Amino acid sequence: MTLRWKIAQALEIRWWRRYLKHKERESYLVTKRAYWQRILQILAIDIQPDMRILDAGCGPAGIFMILNEYKVDAVDPLLQEYEHNLSHFKKANYPNIKFYSQTLEHFEIKQSYNIVFCMNAINHVADLDLCISKLVAATATDGALILAVDVHKYQMLKNTFRAIPGDILHPHQHGLEDYIKILELQGCKIVKTITLKSGRIFDYVAITGKMGE
Question: Is 0.85 surpassed by the pTM of this model?
Fold first, then answer.
């Protein structure tokens, strides 16, 4: 694991503690669930009861929050720290979710998933190529891979952020075309991209990919 990744992970839990410090637990959870429902509507994702779902890099408030009635595996290396340090996240509140407190790099794929979500997480990993290859491998034939990530809007700033850690929580600094290229090299067919939020430096974009025969 790179030093930059280790620093980012150490700061991640501190960021969450500061962010949630003054947020009342129940109102935050209600707001976050509503957010995820809107995301599903925007992405036009139809989830059927028998589908298997992966929430990769789920964090303490991932899309698993609204999927407790489905067959979901949720993976994140900081899950134990989140549960210990954040009152907003308790695994017991999601009895049907299988949580795995480990990195995506070390997560053992034992089955394929009809839907693989990786929401605001792929630029947090240590080995980007390996993790994307795992996401692709985890996606069933004719399944859907939804990768949502902050992407650089300007080449010059992308190069600057790579050279100088201006965004220390995210070890990887890429544009949309970079992620699309990596996905396509892994055999993922890009179906659509949707900008979920536009910013001055980054756009938060959801990339939907499909696995062919």
Answer: yes
